[in-house]
Predict the structure.
Amino acid sequence: YDPKYGARPLRKTIQRLLEDPLSDMILSGSVKDKIAVSADYQDNRVTFDFL
């Protein structure tokens, strides 16, 4: 959260680190028949587990 800009920077970070990569995976067909996803942040990167 940024007092000057509110939650906009946080929203853009969530989109860049979570939504965009997940969208790319779904559109490319690499995610099939999965109903849940878990995201983790380790070693300066986001990893996804599909359940």
In short: The mean pLDDT is 88.
